[in-house]
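FORM 12-B: Structure-to-Sequence Request
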């Protein structure tokens, strides 16, 4: 081999090494730049206080000495009328907050232009869960009770809240 062939091979190797270093450096820079932003990576801190409650039967259990009806919160006259009308109709929700949540869902479904059947299909599982939360065993919540409660929730929410 002559001297110029060795120099050409060495120069090619150097160029290849520089190209690889440049590509790897660029890739590394992009990866670091894309992954280090505060807006892309969020951290979760544990809550400073523990909250109790449930959402449609799911959530942290209440302590043994807690009364789910004892939570005090402000309700509007329309909301109070809704809650009173539910009681008058024989509907006994697991909590006032759950009843207001179901009523709010009824109004949202109506506002979204859903058909009566779509509103029923959307609300019925929430009512069934609330009937179970109020004391009926999960697999024995009587269908007539759930059907009547669902009809009452939809009718009363439509009249009183929406």
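FORM 12-B RESPONSE
SEQUENCE OUT:
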């Amino acid at each position: 081999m002559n001297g110029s062939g060795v120099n050409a091979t060495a120069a090619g190797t150097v160029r290849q090494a520089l190209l690889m270093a440049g590509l790897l450096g660029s890739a590394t820079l992009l990866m670091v730049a894309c992954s280090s932003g505060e807006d892309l990576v969020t951290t979760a801190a544990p809550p400073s206080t523990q909250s109790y409650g449930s959402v449609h039967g799911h959530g942290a259990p209440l302590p043994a000495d807690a009364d789910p009806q004892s939570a005090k919160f402000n309700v509007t006259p329309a909301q109070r009328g809704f809650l009173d009308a539910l009681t008058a109709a024989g509907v006994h929700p697991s909590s006032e907050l759950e009843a207001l949540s179901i009523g709010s869902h009824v109004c949202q479904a109506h506002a979204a232009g859903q058909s009566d059947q779509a509103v029923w299909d959307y609300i019925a599982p929430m009512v069934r869960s609330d009937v179970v939360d109020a004391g009926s065993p999960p697999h024995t919540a009587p269908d007539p009770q759930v059907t009547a409660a669902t009809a009452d929730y939809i009718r009363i929410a439509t009249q009183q809240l929406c």
